[in-house]
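Bug #2210: token dump truncated for Ubiquitin-related modifier 1?
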Amino acid sequence: MKIFFQGGLEQYFLNKSDIEISEETIKSEKIRNLHDLIIFLITNYRACASSLFRKNNNKEGFYELSPGHLCFINDVDYEVLKMYDTDLNKNDSIYFISTMHGG
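Reproduced locally. Full output below:
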């Protein structure tokens, strides 16, 4: 599974434009859907992920994309899929893109 950060988000992830998550990590961390991936990113990149995700006050333990960010799973907007319940697998490409920029 490969996670990409674009639109300036790479600066929040140690200047990395992508992170690869191994099949072993996917299994051990139980990354089954987008929500699980968000929890993984928050847990492992806490300081970085705080700019990309926010707590949903209506659902305990649930995080969502902060306003001004897009998510594409295999080139499809997550909003036309099952949003946070979208199933993920080891061959997926997930893009997080900021729509906010100076200028």
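Output looks complete on our side. The two ends are 33 Å apart (CA to CA). Marking as cannot-reproduce; reopen if the truncation happens again.
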